[in-house]
């Protein structure tokens, strides 16, 4: 009874946030501080260090993301709704001798990390490239690494924030607890996964030639990986050949690295070092592709 009422309350809160978040951010505008050109406290680009430039760009990208209703739905609302629905309907079932709720929480945390750091990032990069936004940004004095670093930092911040919310909802609303000694392992897996998929996003964006093809292409690639990597369907229910094939890809490795701290009864960190190593290899391969093929110009995905 508690779980059913909790699910209804959480769904109402998520829907209210879905339609009110953007308007709230737009309505709050702080007045800009005007400073003289020779004011040593001025915060212009010349007076910011490397960290300040990246944080300033990340702040701008975060505000842009918050005003994008489609991005908010895919990266924030969808994982929360899926968590409430899955735990409300199947949370009391048994999976491999354990409660299904302890399986769905880390699986949907992996989904939120991928949605923020890969799916939404690929669509955003391709759309901005084809509309000329990336070209105009590159023509400014802001270094290229600041633009890339700020966008990647935004994706990581959103993915970690949503992941924290999912873990908290699972714990408070459905009793899915996480041992204190296992928290560093979950944080490490989420950060490593976010870094890996951010790099892969810049690599995959070079292979997509138009903004219209970005969303269908990403979904066509990710949906089979979700189904075969233990995100929605428990690995124990999948054939062995499919589990072995999925273990090659970073989606399954991220899901496994997040499942282990929840599923293991042994004390300690429970860090999945093998999974982290495989994600590092994928990140290195993605970085090599991105460095070779990435372009700020429209049409680069069709001509590269």
Task: List strands and helices in order, with pairings.
Blueprint lengths: L1 H26 L22 H17 L2 H22 L3 E2 L2 E2 L1 H30 L2 H6 L5 H31 L8 H23 L5 H18 L11 H7 L3 H14 L9 H21 L6 H4 L1
Antiparallel strand pairs: 1-2
Helix pairs in contact: 1-3, 2-6, 3-4, 3-6, 4-6, 4-7, 4-8, 4-10, 6-7, 7-10, 7-11, 10-11
Notes on the protein architecture:
The chain is an all-alpha fold and 304 residues long. The chain has one domain. Helix content is 72%, strand content 1%. The protein has a two-stranded antiparallel sheet. Helix 2 crosses helix 6, helix 4 packs antiparallel against helix 8 and helix 10 runs antiparallel to helix 11. The relative contact order is 0.12.
Brief summary:
With 304 residues, the protein is mostly helical. 72% of the residues lie in helices and 1% in strands.
């Amino acid at each position: 009874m508690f779980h059913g009422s909790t699910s209804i309350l959480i769904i109402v809160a998520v829907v209210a946030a879905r339609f009110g978040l953007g308007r709230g951010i737009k309505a709050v505008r702080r007045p800009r501080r005007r400073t003289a050109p020779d004011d040593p406290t001025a915060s212009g680009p010349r007076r910011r260090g490397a960290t300040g430039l990246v944080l300033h760009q990340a702040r701008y990208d975060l505000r842009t993301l918050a005003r994008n209703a489609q991005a908010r739905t895919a990266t924030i609302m969808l994982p929360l709704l899926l968590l409430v629905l899955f735990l409300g309907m199947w949370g009391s079932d048994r999976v491999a001798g354990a409660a299904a709720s302890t399986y769905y929480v880390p699986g949907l945390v992996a989904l939120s990390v991928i949605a923020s750091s890969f799916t939404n990032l690929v669509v955003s990069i391709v759309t901005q490239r084809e509309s000329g936004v990336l070209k105009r940004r590159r023509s400014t004095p802001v270094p290229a690494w600041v633009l890339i670093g700020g966008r990647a930092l935004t994706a990581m911040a959103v993915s970690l924030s949503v992941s924290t919310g999912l873990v908290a909802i699972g714990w408070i609303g459905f009793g899915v607890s996480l041992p204190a000694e296992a928290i560093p392992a979950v944080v490490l897996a989420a950060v490593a996964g976010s870094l890996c998929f951010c790099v892969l996003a810049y690599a995959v964006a070079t292979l997509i030639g138009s903004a219209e093809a970005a969303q269908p292409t990403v979904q066509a690639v990710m949906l089979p990986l979700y189904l075969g990597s233990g995100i929605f369907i428990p690995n124990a229910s999948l054939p062995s050949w499919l589990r072995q094939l999925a273990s090659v890809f970073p989606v399954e490795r991220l899901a496994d690295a997040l499942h282990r701290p929840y599923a293991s009864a042994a004390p300690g960190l429970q860090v999945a070092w093998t999974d982290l190593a495989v994600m590092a290899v994928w990140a290195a391969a993605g970085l090599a592709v991105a460095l070779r093929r990435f372009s700020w110009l429209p049409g680069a995905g069709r001509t590269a």
